Structures are given as C-alpha cells and as structure tokens.
Amino acid sequence: MTIQDKTMITININGNEIKLEKPVTVLEAARSAGIKIPTLCYHEQLEKYGGCRLCLVEVEKIPRLQTACTLMVTDGMVVRTETPQIADVRRGILEFLLINHPLDCPYCDKAGECELQDLVEKYGPAKGRYKEKKRKAPESLEDPVIVRNMERCIMCTRCVRMCEGVQGASAIAVIDRGGHSHVEPFSGGKYDCEYCGNCVSVCPVGAIMSRLHRHSYRPWQVKEKTETICPYCGVGCTVVAQVRDDSIKRVIPKIGSPVNNGMLCSRGRFGYEFVGSSERLTSPMIKKNGVLEQATWEEAISLTAKRLGEIKNKYGGSSIAGIASPRCTNEDNYVFQKFMRIALGTNNIDSAARTGYAGTQTFIENIFGQGATANIIAGLSNSDSVLVIGGDPTTINPILGLQIRACSRKGGNILAIGHIKGLEKFNPLTVSPRFYTETVLLEGLVSALKNKKGLSGSIPVLEAKIKDINTSAKEVENRCGIAEKDFIRFTDTLSESLTPAIVLGKDIVQSSGGSYKLMLISAINYLMNARIYLLCERANEQGLLDMGCAPDLLPGYRPLAFAEFRKRYENAWKSPISEKPGLSIFEMVDSAKSNALKAMYIMGENPVFNLPNSKAVTAALKNVDFIVVQDIFLTETGKLADVVFPALSWAEKDGTFTNMERRIQRLRKAVNREGMEDWRIISEVSKNMGVKLNYSGAEEIFQEISRISPLHRDLTYEEIEKGDAIYPYKGEPLRGVMEDIQMHKGSSVNPDGKLYLRLERPLFHSGTLSTKAPALVKIYPEAVASISPSIGEALSLKSGDMVKVSTRTGSLELPVNIDNKLDNLSVMLTNNFENKGAFSLMEYTIDPVTKAPVIDANEVKLEKSVRLDSEVRA
Amino acid sequence: MTRKGLLNEFKDMEKVLLKNIENPNSADINEYKKAGGYSSLPKALERQPKEIIEEVKKAGLRGRGGAGFPVAMKWTFASADPKFPKYLLCNADEGEPGTFKDRPILEKNPHLLIEGMAISGYALGAEYGYIYLRGEYPEAKNILNRAIKQANDNGFLGDNILGKGIKFHLAVHQGAGAYICGEETALIESLEGDKGQPRIKPPFPVNVGVFAKPTVVNNVETLSNIPYIIEIGGDAYSKIGTTDCPGPKLYCVSGHVEKPGVYELPMGTILRDIIYTHCGGIKGGKKLKAVIPGGATTPVLPPDKIDCPMDFVNMPKHGSMLGSGAVIVMDESVCLVKVCYRILKFLEHESCGKCTPCREGTGWLRNILGRVESGEGIEGDIDLMLSVSGNMMGKTFCPLGDGAASVVQNFIKHFRPEFEEHIKNAKCRFK
User: Are B355 and A53 within 8 A, CB to CB?
Assistant: First the structure.
C-alpha cells in the first residue's frame, strides 16, 4: 500500500462530512454514516451491477445522476441523496418495477420481508398508471426444495450473480433480453444444481423461495431467531433458526458470520426438518424378552447404573467401552469421557473419527506440531494454488469448497489428483493415476519437488524419508498412466506456487498404504511450505478429540501416556485415571467379537451402520451383554441395545462445537423439547452409580473444561460469543520432537479386470441424519450405484435400471446411475440409506499406524436385476 | 463554428474514405495499392508511436461512431496504461437504424480500414485487433477475411510487419444481431463470449477493456481516417471541415430523397444542402415533413430547422445530434406517430434488459404509442408518455434508454398536433 492510499478522503453527503480511510463506493460511505439509500440490485455479497437504478444520487460537478452503488468516492465529493428530484426518480423507478409485478402480496410468502414492498410503502407510487396486461409466468413447483414465481421477478439478477459469482454453480442465467428477460435454469424447467438455496437468500422479492415453509407462516410471526451452528459438517457454519411454536420454520445464513458469511449449502439450509420428525424417540426404552419397550426415565437410568456397576465389578472397567459422538457438543463429549474414565475406570472411549480424521490429524501433527492442520478456511481463497487429494471438498465440506472456487476465480491454480466433480467448472489441472498407483504419483511429486525446492533441514525425520524417494516422471508415466508432460506441468505449477494449500480428504487414509501416503503428502506439504486442511465430515469431530474422546488422549488433546497430564486430570477430577490406553473403535468390535467386551455405552453414534462391514459389527455387538444407546432416532445400533435413551437434538440444547479450523462456536437452544441433553443423561446414570458428575448446565461444564484443559485456558462462553475462539485460544499447543515416522506401505493390488466398491460422499446427505430430513430425501431420494458408461454398456444397464451389487459379505439390489465422469473400475455407493449402505458390503483391514479402516480393496460384482414396481418410491 | 464557402470549395472534394470504390475490384489489395494504398503504414512505422498519436491530436480527429470523442485522447489513455497486451477493437456493429455509412468501407475499401488499424495498433502498442462486425453483414465478413489474409501475406499484418519486428494481428468477430453491442462495453462483453450488456464505467475500456486489458474501441470510419492523416499530416487534415470537428464525413441519406446513398462530404456540411444539393431534393417534388439527422435515436427536426451544420459541436446547438450521420428524410405522406412507434418498437426489442427504466420504459412507451397510432389512444396519453420518458431520461444505464426517451420527447415536441389528432379522431389519417 502506498502512502497516498492511507490519506483520508472526505465526502460530503447531505451536508454531513464523512471521513474515509480508503476509497469506497458512495453507497458504502453513506451506510457507514447511517445515511440510507434505497437499493435493490445491490447486495454486499455480490459483484456490483448498477441495474435497478434505485440508488441514483446527485453529485456536484457531474451533470448526470449517478448510481451510489457503483460510484467510487473521490476526495471532496459532494453528494445529495434526498432531494425532490431524487424522490421523483425513486418513485419513477419503483413504478417501472411495479408495472409488470403482480400485486399478489396477500398470497405471497415474501410479504412482510419483501424489499420491493417496503420500498414502495416508503417512496410510492400510490397508484398505477399502467393500463396494459402484465407479463405472466406460472408458478413453478418443479424443484423439490425451491418454488419459483418468476412473474414477481424484478430482474435485479442477484440470484444469477450469486449462483455464478459466489456459489460457482452457474446453474441459472438471464435468458432473452429487454422486457422478455427472465431468469431460468440452464437445464430448462428444473434446476440442475447444488440446491444450496443461496439464490433464495438474495432474492429481494418472492420470485425464488424455499418450498419447505411455503404458506406455513408469515415472516412477522417468527419471533424467535436463534443464532447457532449447523449440525452437519465440520465447517461449522453459523445459521439462524427461525422458530414458531417450537418448530423450526426456516434456517437462514447470516451475513458477516465468521465461517460462511451469508452462504449455506443444501444440507445446512434444507436439512433441518429431522428435528421435528415424527420418528424421533420420545421415551426411554428397555429391552424385555428381546423387545424394546417403553420405560420411565427412572427405570432406564437405574437399570443402566446397576448393570454397568455389576459388569465393572465383575469384569473390570476394561470390559466396558464407550463410543462418543461427533454430532454431540463438546460439553456432552467431555462429560462422557469423564464418566468413562472415572465412573467406569477405563480409557475405552473412541468415536467414528477413528475412521480417518483422527488418524490423519495425529499423523500430520506428530510431524509438524500440534495445530498444523488448524487453518482458517477463508484463507484458502487467498492461496495461489490449492492441491486437492482424496475427496471432493465441494460435497464433503461445501462451504470450504466455495473458498477453493473463489481461489480459482482470483486467479489461483486448482490442482487435483483424480477427478473432482465439484471443481470441474474451475479449470482444475487434474492428474488421474491408474487405480492403486496413487502412491507412485505421490512419490513422483515428492521427488520432483525435492529436486526443485531442496531440503531445508528443519524436520530431519521427514527429510530422512524424503531422501529415500526417487521416482522419475517417466516412472510416473509408465505406472500411473499420466503423460510425462502433464506430470511436469502439474509439478511445475505446484512448485511455482508461493502460498499453496493442500486439501486432504479421507479417501487417502482409508486406502491401502494410507499411512505411507500420508507421509508422502506430509513431504509435499513440507517441501512446499503449504497449509493443510483436513476435510471433516461431522460437525464436532474435532471437538470430541479435543475433549479427550480417544483411547490415548485426555482433554486438551493431551496424550494419556504422559503421567504429568494424567496427574493433572486426576487432581482435577479427584479420581484415579487408568494409565492403560483404551481400545480404538475397531478394537472394541474385535473385543466384542471375542466376548471380552461385556458392555458398551454408545452416545449419538450408529456403529452398526457407520462402520464398515456392518454384518460383522452387528454380530460382534450381539455378543455384548449390555448395550446402552443414546440417540434421537432408533438406529440400527439402538435396535441391538438393552437400554435406549431419547436424546435432545442439536436444536434443542446449548453448548459448543469446534469446527475443523478449531474455532469454538456456540450452539444455542432454538426449540424447547422435553428430555435431557446427552451429558445430563450420563450424569444421571453416573449419580446412580455413586459418582457425582453434577452440572447446572452446559456453561458450567465448559467452565470446568477451561479451568483444567491447558488448551482451553480462560475460555468462556462470553469470549466464544465474540467469535474470537480460534486455536490455540489462550492455551498451549503441545510441542515435541518426533523420533521416527511410523508408516505402513500396504500391499499392492493388481486391479486388472475387476470392479471395486467405493464410497460416495454425496452433497445432499450426511450419515443417516439427512435421510430423516424430507427435503434432502426429495433431492436425493434413494441409494444408487453409480458406474461408468462403459460398465453400464457391458451389462446393458441404463440409469434407473436395477442392479445387484455383490461382495464377499453380501449383496444389495439398487437402481443404477450412469456417470460419465467415473472410471471403469469403480462402483460408487453412498452410506446414507437404511439397509442400503455401502458399508454393509465392505470389509476392512486396519492400517497399523493410523488405526483407520482400509476399504479400497472390496471387489464387487454387478448383475442386472429387475426392479419390482412395489419398490419404486413415489 | 463553420467556415463560409467551405461547402463549395469541397464540393468535389478528394475522396478519402470512398476513394476508388467505383472500381469493381476495389477490395483487392493490388487495386488498393495501385490507388496509393499501404503507403501510410511504412511512413508511420518510421515514426515513434507517440508522434503518431500527436499527429492524430493535431488532426483533431473525433470518433465517428456517434459520440465524437477526441480520438487522440482515448489513445493517450490506453497507451499510458502499463498493462499488456493492449487491444484495438474496431466497432463495425453498424446497427443504428438508417445507418449504412461503414458498409461501403467494409465491403469496398477493407484495406483502408486494415491499414488504419495497423497504424493505430502500432501507435497504441496494441498487438491484437478485432473487427466486431454487425451480424447482418455476412458479405463484409468474407471480404474482410479475404483482405486480412492478403494483408498478412503481404506483410502488412502479422508478427513482423514490413520486416520492422512490429506485431499486429487482426481477426473478424461477427456479432449475433444485437443493437446494444454497438455500445463499446457491451461489444466487449459480447466479444468475450458473454451476453451483450453494457458494463459499469469506470473503469473505462482504455484501462480495463477486453480480457481486462487496455482497449481502444474505434468506429470503422474513424480508423479509416488514420492513413490519410499520416499521408497529409495532422495540420493539413485539420483544415478540412469545421475547426472543432475536422475531416471528411460519411453521410448516409435514406428516405424520400431523389438520390439516397452514402456521401463523403466535409464535416459540417449543412443538412439542407445534403438533402437538396447532394441528394437532389425530396422525391417526386413532395413537401418535406421531418428529418432525423443522425440515426433513429437522434432528435427529429422539422423542415424549418434543417439549416444546421452537420457536426458534433453544432448539431446540439440546433436541437439534435450528428450521431452516426444517418439522415432519414420523410415527406408529407408519412405518419410521424407511426414512425415514433416504429422506432420505439425497435428500441424495446433491442433493450438489453439490464436497467429498470429502459427495460420497462421502452415497452411501456411502445404500448402507449401503439394504441395512439391505432386510434385507441385516450386523453392524457401524451402527458403520460412525456412523464414516462421523463422518468427514463438521464436514469438509464447506457444511452439506449435515454435515446428512447428522447425520441418520444422530440416527436411530441415538434409534432404534438399530429399525436393529438390521432387521439381526438381515434384514427390515423395516413392509413
């Protein structure tokens, strides 16, 4: 910045002198001084347009009226925004907008929060002079979650600019011109898009609206507007839940919120209806004679306390295991692990984070130091290149995906290993290695970068590994099938980058040789001096690790192995902590299989469905004498339980979530519902076992956390509410030096002529939770097996045909979806739909280093089958 | 300011822009060279780019597209911008109704334009040029492409022009028929592959133009003046026409005159002389009723207001504009309400729809004019039209909407009784 830029600029608006530090538009200057200028096409999230002409103002020395939204302030400018002439202009413009706008305000859901209605109320005109027929367009209900009334459209094009310029979906456009201009999906009648609904957010009138609350309330009837955090993925978007009569009517984003700044994805915006689902559990249940029957809270709590106590006394604490939940709050998870450790005396506590996120993070942070993966999401857009590996960020963490798109828009390079569908419109430089040769490609990248960048000597253990890697571009070409020149272009682009970022998905850690690949990616990260982001599928996956819901970690991400830390918590909790590390979630399954595990306490998790090889997990859990499940729905796991507690959902409780940036954010109760928070159920059970875990509320739990966790030192709800709770807070990250990097190369696979089952991570679903949200089910109604056109051709299958998908563990009959972006070795299947999960067909091995399941070697057979009419969903 | 006697002096002025066009092979490079063509380019390349801009400045050349912006000023801005590469765009999207002045250059004298662009490109430091050609000129496209190939083959375009190491590539881009793409920023949007809609200014194209690079957009006629300026020098050139607007000008005359056509005359030729002297007066000896002097959107003039010098400076003083120099002459048989309606119908059709007043206003005005013209007008319609056009004037994004408002205002201003008669008698007497 030059010195000149820093000098103050003065502008005079309506006689008020406004001093500004930097040039802004007249509109921004006016708003900063509290002077209102009406606008319609202007929106702070969008590129300037200057089309509606409502913000015209008088500027001295410029004969023509100027649009305040586009005119940059110059020093000494004199502007008038309220003159008789301007009043006439506004009335005239509004009259133009009204001549073709239907006056169906009594019927329109937007009435009451319609910007056009408000402006006409203020500026007029009071009556119409237009005698001709208005333009007409029928209401469109073609889309599952969006309703369009395009005759209400005023052509501000906010939706189009949002869709193209911010969301990057480019699904809609202005078709035709002049008075015939209308906004329409490129795909014709129906949207072919990401259903983010961000067009809904920016529409100033009732042209594009959510269908979910159509004609169900008027905006002024929604009194309660609770700012909280989205329950779906690890990005942790701020959402505002608008509630009437204890029912969420709408979830909207908030401009200026830290992570998502006014944006939401389809899950966040349209996926809230599970809260009010009639399938929610309402009462505790106890299994009697093999059947779950309703019971009172007292019965269920005392039975649980009694049985757990008996088992602990008889077999010891290590015969009991707990599974924590990435959907539950930090407070829930903290109390849970404390309960496991001091009431049951075991470190057998783990979570589904073990399926990849935890192991990846530990691996990378052991090399680079704690916090190395805690990077600010918004920073991605300022990188000059982003390397994407192991998953589509735009479906797993959609709002993070937007930052990658923004990076491309700003001129950054997107580098992708394997086809990334959500980034294909952003000109990614893609290299797609043959199946099971990703390792060779990564070795090639490390070799090339080593030669270009050299070694700095700062992390000797990693350099020792890097020195051993020598894979030439030729070798990459021969083995991965990537042309040498493409590979060189890829490495050149990457190596020339000055501010690179790496975005890493779970497919890597879940593949054969995952820990070796993580070392290679760490090496790339090291050689490039990049920032690394780990895609995070669940809202509080990070938080539960920070809370110590891991067999080897105490709260504050402190290793159990260090006596010093154990001591600290023993003193704080006034109870001994076992020094024996607990079982990982997969070890729990093995232990159950071998009858060693006698009891399980499962909070907000569904391991039977969410762990690979469901059949084996089910069989193992059936061996366990006593299972307690707390959940909001009766899940597959719940059906195996001896006691089931109904939990409160995300919308019904207070607490905190920690997102993938490790930003701690406040979850606020939006809806009242009878029942107990997860932590309160646990504390009741604990009390019955004679161990007091009494708290008055979530805040008191957090006060305890901030008192004793060295990482969360001095954090308060007040501090968190300021939005300042960014890692490492005021606490201390752990520092240490690694002696050696453990890794496992895995076995090589020859994929010739075989098909493999792979996990699809869809945009519209997340776990099974989203399948209880009718809007998301309408968009993505059922499990489908996606295959490439040539596999389809070979089996004479077209989209919609039924196919039998079989592996060694079982088979499923599913409709098929032909996807021309897929390779000829993969059958893609989601793990979201009841009885149709990919995990039910997958076996796994465990990577000895990351403890994550390796699921990339599941051979699969396809056979054409016939779909019965009764199976077709309406 | 006009110079008395100028008209006579230049009555048979040397043809600059239409030179040699009677030759049936005038579009061929050899014929062009035989007539002295491509002699300015080598001269220009001997000089510094700055000197060429200086020469154009001395010549006082103004843009011939309609706005009359000083060419040297535009060039200076673009050449001073450090961004690279720079682009030179030729606006050949001649879409204003009544305008066909560029067509003879494009079809009969393409090498004049190419030579002009090569010199201009050199002056600006632009290495790439595009001719944005009107969609309805398919023949011109073939002719231009052939001429560009010839120029390339002869070393007048390409990577190493005349062996001087100077680079200038030229390509033709054909529009898809939208009038708005004659507006320079809409033209740029369209050239980039987007929908033709004007952009926010500033930044101006000279700084952020096509592909976000410094870009000069000049009209065909403007660029075709450049070789002549180099040939005779800026000072000599500036003595042609009027002092404020020097140079030759193409006037294209259509409508009820004996000899319609394109006339190359000195800038500032009196409108009455164009009609009565050069074009042989009103066809069939009928009475003149109205003249639109500079293309459909310029203000219409009644017969007693046509003693005006046709240049950028003098026309506004006489209540109209030079525009593109497209003179539309209408005799007493014409219904001016219908003419006004027809122009509004065109502008409504061509409104891009970006800004509210133009998108909604042009259609509304056309509706009212339509009912007045067909005898269904009602009392108050004239005032309503004046009010609606007043709500548009000065509030639209680009000049298209202002033009529409101005058409209605000026037709009513000069011919209000004819509108009133339509409403009163509930019919049109010209039918």
Answer: yes
Q: Tell me which amino acid residue B264 is.
A: E
- Count helices and strands (H / E) in chain B: 18, 9
Question: Topology of A357-534 in CATH?
Answer: Dimethylsulfoxide Reductase; domain 2 (3.40.228)
A752-793: pLDDT as tens digits: 778 999 999 999 999 999 999 999 999 999 999 999 999 999
Residue with tokens 């692990």: A337
Q: Which CATH code for domain A3-82?
A: 3.10.20.740
Which residues of B, range 349-378, sit inside 8 Å of A by Cβ? 349-357, 359-364, 367
Comparing CB atoms, the residue among A50, A96, A176 nearest residue B360 is A96
Instruction: Please check whether residue B394 touches A, CB under 8 A.
Output: yes
What residues does A646 pair with on adjacent strands? A631
The domain A285-351+549-721: what is its CATH number? 3.40.50.740
Do B418 and B285 lie in one domain? The reply is no
Please give the helix or strand (H or E) that residue A406 lies within, else none: helix A398-409
Is the domain of B282 the same as that of B378?
A: no
Residue B9 lies in a domain: no
Chain B closest CA to A173's CA: distance in Å? 10
Q: pLDDT tens digits for A334-364?
A: 999 999 999 999 999 999 999 999 999 999 9
B252 and B225 within one domain: no
Quickly tell me which residue has 């200026």 as its tokens: A256
Range(s) of the domain holding residue B103? 20-237
In this prediction, residue A2 carries a pLDDT of: 43
List the single best residue of B180, B189, B199, B200 to mutate versus A (max A Cβ within 10 A).
B200
Domain A755-871, classified CATH 2.40.40.20, yes or no: yes
Please state, in angstroms and as integers, the Cα–Cα distance from residue A256 to each residue in A8, A9, A239, A259, B18, following that order.
25, 25, 11, 9, 62
d(Cα A18, Cα B363) in Å, to the nearest integer? 41
Residues B344 and B362 grouped into a single domain = yes
| Cβ-based contacts of A52 with chain B (< 8 Å) | 355-356
**In B, which residues are within 8 Å of A155 by CB distance?**
353, 356, 359
| Whole-structure pTM value | 0.94
- Is the ipTM here above 0.90? yes
